[in-house]
Amino acid sequence: MVPNKIFFTKGVGKHKHQLQSFELALRSAGIEKCNIVRVSSIVPPNCKIIPRERGIKLLKPGQITYCVISQNSTNEPNRLVGAAIGIAIPRGNNSYGYISEHHSFGETNKKLGDYAEDLAATMLATTLGLEFDPDKAWDERKQEYKMSGRFVRTQSIAQTAKGDKNGLWTTVIAAAVFLEE
């Protein structure tokens, strides 16, 4: 199987049991009806990014579904949890791209997303043999990557939530969901 479509989704769940909070996060993301298989970080050549709504409509109950997932949980009241996925796609139909996952505590959506996007872009840059200064800010390196003409796009999706004030488990997920049609 080589996926030819991918979509991104995210969700939050809260419950007294950690597993149930994860299930509710999957529901929030629209992928609860799938048998999820976690995979690593390669975007196949010619894999088209589609909108979340379209991707969810293509899923069937019980379907084996390959995903790159970032997940984080807490039962600590008001603790900020986050999960993010980043992607970097090269120019050219015969090249593969990268997906990264990142999860943390205390980071904003923007910081999480930028970090995950930076990770994916850095993995792609090293594969393409691009020179880069890891000490430069992500925004600066992002411009350099795009100006090289070898990147088509980078993006991220992030989900944060504060831990439930009454100590319920709070779970966040961000996912890149692969499809084959």
Helix content estimate: 25-40%
Cα distance spanning the termini: 10 Å
Indicate the overall shape. Answer: flat
The CATH topology is given as: Pyruvoyl-Dependent Histidine Decarboxylase, Chain B
Q: How many helices does DSSP assign?
A: 4
Question: What features would you describe in this structure?
Answer:
The chain is α+β, with helices and mostly antiparallel strands and 181 residues long. The chain has one domain (5-179): Pyruvoyl-Dependent Histidine Decarboxylase, Chain B (3-Layer(bba) Sandwich), CATH 3.50.20.10. The protein contains four helices and nine strands; from the N terminus they run βαβββαβββααββ. The chain has helices at residues 18-29, 52-58, 109-128, 138-147, and strands at 5-15, 35-38, 42-43, 48-49, 64-74, 80-90, 97-105, 151-162, 169-179. The protein has a five-stranded mixed beta sheet. The chain has a four-stranded antiparallel beta sheet with strand order 3-7-6-8. A hairpin with a 6-residue loop joins strand 6 (80-90) and strand 7. The radius of gyration is 17 Å and the shape is flat. 41% of the residues are buried. The mean pLDDT is 92.
Structure in a nutshell:
With 181 residues, this protein is of the alpha+beta class.
